[in-house]
């Protein structure tokens, strides 16, 4: 999260640790793959379950919008000014626009499906989520391959830290432990040590005391039908 690193850092010479963004992207890759499966696992007419998955989808959409808004505000202008690659920045902005359009379609189908959990709306929403994931993965692949090396070269550590702080500030306080759990779920041991090492002491204590259980319970609540083989 944002307090201290696992090892002493020379703040003058250090460059941004852009692998942080790869781990964040891993969350969106995982959840965008789960989303259509979760929708299709809801039985016709099960409006209670549809409401639970709809809330999960809205959280996903809000989180991705915020993530991209931070990039639009804090990364693209600096890269355009310093790296001079206007074509690449334009490409990233165009991809964000395509993702926004895909999320708009998702957002239009969520309430239609949630109301009655009918088969037609369910399939339209699932297809919208599949199409969204396709454009999202194109963007994440390009960003990791083309943009992050430029970030490491042209942004200062302080500027990169600001990106992380703004990312956290956009999260409701009651979602912070869930966000940490999402980052740690598929993390390697080294990645887990890194992110926990940057989490303030209170956050680490809360994660051990309640956060792990809270995140596990949230996953069971959202993914239960898949885990029980209930996907349709």
Explain how this protein is built.
This protein is an all-alpha fold. It folds into two domains: 19-159, Four Helix Bundle (Hemerythrin (Met), subunit A) (Up-down Bundle); 171-227, no CATH class. 79% of the residues lie in helices and 0% in strands. The protein has nine helices and no strands. The longest helix has 36 residues, at 119-154. Residues 1-12 have low confidence and may be disordered.
Q: Which key phrases capture this entry?
A:
single chain, 232 residues, mainly alpha, Four Helix Bundle (Hemerythrin (Met), subunit A), 2 domains, globular, disordered N terminus
Q: Main sheet?
A: none
State the order of secondary-structure elements, H for helix, E for strand: HHHHHHHHH
- In total, the number of domains comes to 2
Q: Please give the number of β-strands.
A: 0
Protein structure class: mainly alpha
Low-confidence blocks of residues = 1-12
> CATH topology of the largest domain, what is it called?
Four Helix Bundle (Hemerythrin (Met), subunit A)
Dominant shape: globular
Please give the alpha-carbon distance between the first and last residues: 37 Å
Rg for CA atoms: 19 Å
Helix content: over 70%
The portion of residues forming beta strands comes to: under 5%
CATH class of the largest domain: Mainly Alpha
Supply the number of helical segments. 9
Compute the average pLDDT. 91
């Amino acid at each position: 999260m944002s307090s201290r690193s696992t090892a002493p850092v020379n703040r003058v010479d250090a460059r941004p640790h852009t692998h942080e963004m790869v781990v964040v992207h891993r969350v969106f890759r995982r959840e965008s793959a789960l989303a259509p499966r979760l929708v299709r696992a809801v039985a016709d007419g099960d409006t209670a379950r549809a409401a639970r998955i709809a809330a999960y989808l809205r959280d996903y959409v809000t989180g991705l919008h915020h993530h991209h808004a931070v990039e639009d505000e804090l990364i693209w202008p600096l890269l355009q000014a310093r790296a001079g690659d206007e074509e690449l920045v334009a490409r990233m902005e165009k991809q964000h626009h395509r993702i926004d359009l895909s999320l708009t379609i998702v957002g239009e189908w969520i309430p239609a499906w949630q109301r009655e959990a009918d088969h037609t709306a369910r399939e339209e929403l699932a297809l919208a989520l599949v199409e969204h994931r396709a454009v999202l993965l194109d963007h994440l692949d390009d960003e990791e391959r083309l943009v992050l090396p430029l970030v490491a070269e042209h942004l200062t550590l302080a500027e990169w830290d600001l990106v992380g702080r703004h990312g956290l500030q956009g999260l409701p306080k009651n979602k912070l432990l869930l966000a940490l759990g999402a980052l740690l779920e598929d993390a390697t041991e080294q990645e887990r040590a890194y992110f926990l090492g940057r989490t303030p002491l209170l956050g680490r204590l809360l994660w051990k005391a309640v956060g792990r259980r809270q995140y596990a319970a949230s996953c069971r609540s959202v993914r239960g039908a898949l885990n029980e083989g209930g996907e349709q």
